[in-house]
Design goal:
Layout lengths: L3 H8 L9 E4 L6 E7 L17 E2 L4 H5 L1 H5 L2 E4 L4 E4 L1 H9 L7 E4 L23 E5 L2 E5 L1 H16 L4 H6 L4 H4 L5 H11 L3 H9 L2
Bound molecules: zinc ion.
Length: 206
Amino acid sequence: METLSELICKHKQITPQNGELKGVCCLCGKTTTKGYKKKFGANMTKAVEISQGTVICPHCQPLIKLSNELRRSMWLITESEFHKFKKQEAKEVILNLPDKPFYLYLTNTWQQIGWLKMVNRVNYDKNSLICCCLDYDTYFIELETIKELFVLIESLRELKIPKTELENGKLSMHHYQKLETPRETAKQLKKYAGNPVWKLCVYLNE
Ligand SMILES: [Zn+2]
C-alpha cells in the first residue's frame, strides 16, 4: 500500500521532484535523501503536526500546494480512486466503504488543515475499527455502531426532532411526546449526549 502522499500524487498525476536534503519527513515520517526545507504557508506554520521531522519528502511536498483542495472537501482515497465529496454524500460513502485499504477524511469546518493528521491513517479493513479524521479530531469507530446510530438519528429526524436536542440529549416536552417509546429513547439520547461519534453522526444526517 502506498502512503497517502504517494496516492495523492498518483491520482493528481503529479511527478514528485527531488530535493537535496537528507532527513525525516515532517508529514509522513519517512527518511529521505531527497527532501526539501520545511517551508509552509502562514496557515500551516503553527500546526503541531509538522513540528516533528526535519524536511519534507518529494511526495509530501506537492500536498502543501494542494492544501486548499484537501481542507475544503471530504474525501476517500484508495489505490484506485480519489473521491472528493460534500456532506450530502458522506453517509452514502461511509455506508459503502471499499473492501480494500482506504483513507477517510471528513470535515465540518471546511477550512481547517486536519488533513495533515491523515498521512499515516490508513484503514486496511472496513470491518475493524475505522479511523477517520474530522478536521483535527481523530475518530476510531466501528461501522456497525455507525449504522445503528444512523438508523436512530434518521427515525428521530423524521419526527422533526431538532439536531440541537439530539446533540445535547435534552428533549423538549413537545418533542418527547412525539416519540414512540419516549422513555427508552430519552434514555438512549442521554447516554449518547456529549459522545463525539454521536455528534459526528448527527452532523452527517440531514
Ligand atoms: Zn513525506
